[in-house]
Amino acid sequence: MDFDPALLRAFVAVKETGGFTRAAQRLHLTQSAISHQIRRLEEQVGRPLLHRTTRRLTVTEDGEDFLRYAQQILDTLDTMTRRFQPSLISGVVRFGAPDTFMGDRLPPLLSQFARSFPATRMEVSVSMHLDFRAMIKAGELDLAVVMSPADCEEGTCLRRTQLVWVAAETFEPPAGASLPLAYFPKPCVNRELAGAALDATPVDWHVVFTSASQHGIRAAVLAGLAVTVLTREDVEPGMKIVDGRYGLPPLPNVDFSLIWSEGGKTECACRFGQLILEMPELPAHDKA
């Protein structure tokens, strides 16, 4: 038995307003139209839902039960309408982030945004070596996630993590030679903080591998070519944390923060920024 939502709305309106006239006013219909809809509904149900007298109108016992179901159906329909109603928001969102922050969360984030706001267009830069601060300052991006030393109070902090020295589980430094390192190209916060820490030690080191891709750095480390700097969450099977070994100094915590350009807070960019702020934490099994 399929019920016409228009008939359900008429019945609920009659109950809530206490009469056909007020229900007609609420639904912008004539009183006769409301009467006709209630009569059709009762015929479909096969029993009276309202008890009418010349002085008052009451809901029957069956009507009370039917009312609860009707309200649930209408609430669900209203929720569906809000969820899938075409969005009037349009425009371009220019976003940048380090790939170490986004990881596997970028595809579902973009999918969710595209479903909610199909009239928008995304321009996304995901890299460890692009200077997102400079791009934000130049107005080339609307919003970006940047890495910075902990407690620098830059933008809105999304997540704090620890930088660690990482090598392959089978890695052994070459005897009598300087320590080989793998880095992202400059500018890179990982590289800058690692360099500053190394400058305060007598460790002899050299850069043996450079890649703008996290996959490239990962390959070099797993191949046993070099030691690198990653966030603790990015340590993978086949890698080991080597903090304190080979004379390597401790590394600081860093924050991932969301920053905006001066003119970047358009309506569509703000909606995308809100999705980033609501991103779930990394699953526990992904954390070292």
Stretches where pLDDT is under 50 for at least 5 consecutive residues are 282-288
From the spread of the alpha carbons, the general shape counts as elongated
Give the tally of β-strands. Answer: 11
The assigned structural class equals alpha/beta
- Please tell me the overall pLDDT: 89
Largest sheet: 7 strands, mixed
Work out the strand percent: 15-25%
Helix fraction by DSSP (H/I, runs of at least 4) = 25-40%
Euclidean distance between termini CA atoms = 55 Å
Gyration radius (Cα, Å) is 31 Å
The helix/strand series, from N terminus to C terminus, equals: HHHEEHEHHEHEEEHEHEEEH
Count of DSSP helices? Answer: 10
Can you offer a commentary on this structure?
The chain has 288 residues and is an alpha/beta fold. Helices cover 39% and strands 23% of the residues. It has helices at residues 5-17, 20-27, 31-45, 61-84, 99-102, 106-116, 132-137, 189-199, 214-222, 267-277, and strands spanning 50-52, 57-59, 91-97, 120-126, 143-149, 156-168, 179-183, 205-210, 228-231, 239-241, 253-260. The strands form 3 sheets. Strands 3, 4, 5, 6, 9, 10 and 11 form a 7-stranded mixed beta sheet that branches. α1 packs across α2 (20-27), α1 packs across α4 (61-84) and α2 (20-27) packs across α3 (31-45). The longest helix is centred in the N-terminal third of the chain and has 24 residues, at 61-84. The radius of gyration is 31 Å and the shape is elongated.
